[in-house]
Design a protein that fits this description.
Blueprint (H helix, E strand, L loop, with lengths): L15 H6 L13 H11 E15 L8 E12 L3 E16 L2 E16 L4 E7 L4 E6 L2 E14 L7 E10 L7 E11 L9
Antiparallel strand pairs: 1-2, 1-9, 2-3, 3-4, 4-5, 5-7, 6-7, 7-8, 8-9
Amino acid sequence: MKQRKMLVPFLASFAVLAACEGSPDRLPLAPDAPLEARQDAILEKMVPFKGSGTWQAVAFSEPDFENMEIEITVETEGTATHLGRFESVWTARYSFILVNGDLIPTEYLSHSTIYTAANGDELYTGGCVDKGTEYFPEEDGLSFFMTGVSIVGGTGRFEGAEGYYDFLVKATEGLPFPGGTWELEGEISTVGSTRGGR
């Protein structure tokens, strides 16, 4: 296994810890609205959110040997409902082990993602291991399934967007984490039409 050169990602990550603290499948409720009305409003706002595409690991941070953690920057591209064609930057934190001097990422801990639509609108998401992650082997790599990734706003038509999705990631080109495919499915609050005409 080749020794990987560790690079420091320069992307500023968004508040993934805040995304991990709340329930990803419930929107904030207006404090003065009756509970039944608030629940109906939540159900009406949510629409399906699905997508698929490819990913490529592009940078590894300097390892944190005290906590045995590393940050990995991943670039993705694909298509998704409400986003259309897009590119994204996924910044994830993993635990790691050393095997014969090689650093091997092991357990996913948390991540934040910036999805950028063709017109420049951005959608922000984040997740963490507490929401649930399952790993399983593939013939040519490793897959993992993340549940409850939170949608935590954005710009343009995604300003104030909320929701969640489940994320299936397949490493189809070997290990550790060089690239592969992904799929997502969940719900997002209605975008554009209720955001000041965006």
